[in-house]
């Protein structure tokens, strides 16, 4: 025979079990709001609560923007030089391939320069007044040459310039975060690669480069 004390314990246990079951049923019933999962912000840090990460991101964006501006300004200067030197080659070149290459340089870099000016305006970059000091010195040097001496010096200069420009445009294409800069860098890279291939063949035809692509002459 069960005592009153034992019956009381059984009734208390049954009530607790019934309450737990009803609570679980209510949470799984259709239309009942799902129980929200609690998260601990300290276990999953985000950019919003990580000032150091935010500062690094901002510094990276500023650095990338400055690099874009420097690239565009330098590209405009280099393009101006290529146009002026191309005009000089079309006038003073003694061989047809040098003259034709000079004409192509004028046409292609004028077009590329126009595209670069649009990007410069977007970035707030002031167009340079003219080529760099180094390119001005090269122009003056070539201006004083004629015949084969001019052809050889121009070819050597163009090979060196286009190898350097090809590397710079490709590097900018990879590092820039600005879609407009990326687009003009890609277009410029394609043009420069084409020019480099052309001037490499011309250099080989003029016996200024060996089969391994190394110049055998220098710009004196």
Structural write-up:
Helix 2 runs antiparallel to helix 3 (96-123), helix 2 runs parallel beside helix 4 (133-143) and helix 5 packs antiparallel against helix 6. The chain is elongated. The chain contains 6 helices and no strands. It has a domain at 63-205: Ferritin (Up-down Bundle), CATH 1.20.1260. It has 220 residues and is mostly helical.
Write the layout of secondary structure elements.
Blueprint: H1 4-28, H2 51-92, H3 96-123, H4 133-143, H5 147-175, H6 179-205
Concise structural overview:
The protein has 220 residues and is mostly helical.
Short descriptors:
6 helices; Ferritin; mainly alpha; 220 residues
Taken as a percent bin, the fraction of beta residues is under 5%
Coarse morphology = elongated
SS-derived structural category: mainly alpha
Given as residue ranges, the uncertain stretches (5+ residues, pLDDT < 50) are 1-26, 28-45
């Amino acid at each position: 025979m069960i005592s009153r004390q034992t019956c009381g314990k059984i009734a208390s246990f049954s009530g607790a079990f019934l309450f737990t079951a009803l609570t679980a049923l209510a949470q799984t019933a259709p239309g009942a709001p799902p129980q929200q999962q609690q998260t601990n912000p300290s276990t999953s840090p985000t950019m919003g609560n990580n000032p150091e990460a935010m500062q690094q991101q901002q510094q990276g964006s500023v650095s990338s923007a400055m690099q874009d501006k420097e690239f565009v300004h330098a590209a405009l200067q280099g393009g101006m030089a290529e146009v002026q030197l191309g005009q000089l080659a079309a006038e003073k070149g003694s061989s047809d391939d040098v003259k034709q290459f000079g004409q192509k340089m004028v046409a292609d870099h004028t077009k590329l320069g126009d595209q670069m000016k649009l990007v410069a305006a977007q970035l707030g970059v002031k167009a340079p007044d003219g080529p760099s000091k180094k390119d001005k010195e090269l122009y003056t040097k070539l201006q004083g040459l004629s015949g084969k001496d001019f052809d050889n010096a121009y070819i050597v200069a163009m090979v060196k310039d286009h190898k350097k420009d090809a590397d710079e445009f490709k590097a900018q294409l990879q590092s820039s975060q600005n879609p407009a800069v990326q687009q003009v860098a890609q277009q410029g890279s394609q043009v420069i690669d084409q020019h480099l291939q052309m001037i490499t063949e011309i250099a080989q035809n003029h016996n200024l480069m060996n089969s391994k692509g190394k110049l055998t002459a220098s710009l004196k």
